[in-house]
Amino acid sequence: MAAQQLKMTLPASLRAERRGNVAIVRLARPEKRNALNDTIVLGLETFFTSLPDDIAAALIYGEGDHFSAGLDLSELQERDIKQGIAHSSQWHRVFDKIQFGKVPVVSVLHGAVVGGGLELAAATHIRVAERSTYYGLPEGSRGIYVGGGGSVRLPRLIGVARMMDMMLTGRTYSAEDGQAMGLSTYLTEPGDGFAKGLALAERIGGNTALTNFAITHILPRIAEVDPASGYAVESLISSIAQADAEAKNRLTAFLEGRANKVTRPD
Asked: Tens digits of per-residue pLDDT, 98-145?
């Protein structure tokens, strides 16, 4: 499907378009390895909060050779402690609007996925990594600490010990390592990531909006509560989802043999 421009005001370092019901945003600062500054982060907030109502999924990608090499460190030189707290809180707010936003988000990773770039990727729901991808958290060697929610999201993906090792020693992981430990959910050859990510976003966009909401907003929160509370919330959201008119139509189509059955993977 041909790309169409999305009507929203974004900085030059971001490019937005749509293909059908999928919105695409590209980090467009390749000369800086898509390093994240306030302009990009606030632009991402605008993108994810201004999506048209008929958008059902989103995809984020980095132009050039890298997804994102992390925070633009030149911005750190001018902040005192109070300003640093406010800056970190700003990233938390924006990345929460990706993780708990209007639609599921797929990220396509290649080249550097480092520091804040990895924190950004961790806020997305599905991560497609090309084999050129490498991951790092170099904050320890630079005398700083993650500030974009990495302490919360990354241990849930790879565990505290691995994150600690990455930050203390500067260890980097390859695309294959990242796939094995859970940093990515799909692995592709170089140059194939965008097509795979778009196909996944289109597939996700074909779900009902209520089901996608339950998966992206309710499931992560159920995982954080005690089992009894989790069962109660699951029962409630399950009942709500199956009562939806579109869900009833889809279940009827399956029972009448008009919907595909689950089969073995190729």
From this structure: 999 999 999 999 999 999 999 999 999 999 999 999 999 998 888 889
| CA 70 – CA 41 distance, rounded (Å) | 11
Q: Which domains, and CATH codes, for the chain? A: 4-205 (3.90.226.10), 209-255 (1.10.12.10)
Residue showing tokens 């302009």: 39
| Cα 40 from Cα 31, distance rounded (Å) | 14
56-103 pLDDT, tens digit per residue, is 999 999 999 999 999 887 776 677 889 889 999 999 999 999 999 999
What global pTM score does this model have? 0.93
User: What values do phi and psi take at 9, rounded to 5?
Assistant: -90, 110
Residue from 45, 119, 130, 202 carrying the catalytic annotation: 119
Catalytic residue among 45, 130, 139, 202: 139
Residue 119 is among the residues annotated as catalytic for this protein:
yes
Residue 109 and residue 121 in contact, taking contact as beta carbons nearer than 8 Å: yes
Q: What's the rounded Cα separation, in Å, for the pair 205 and 203?
A: 5
- 246 counts as catalytic: no
Alpha carbons 114 and 97: distance in angstroms, whole number: 21
Instruction: Work out the pLDDT band at 259, boundaries 50, 70, 90.
Output: low
- In 3D, which of 234, 237, 205 has the Cα closest to residue 104? 205
Which amino acid, one-letter code, is at 143? G
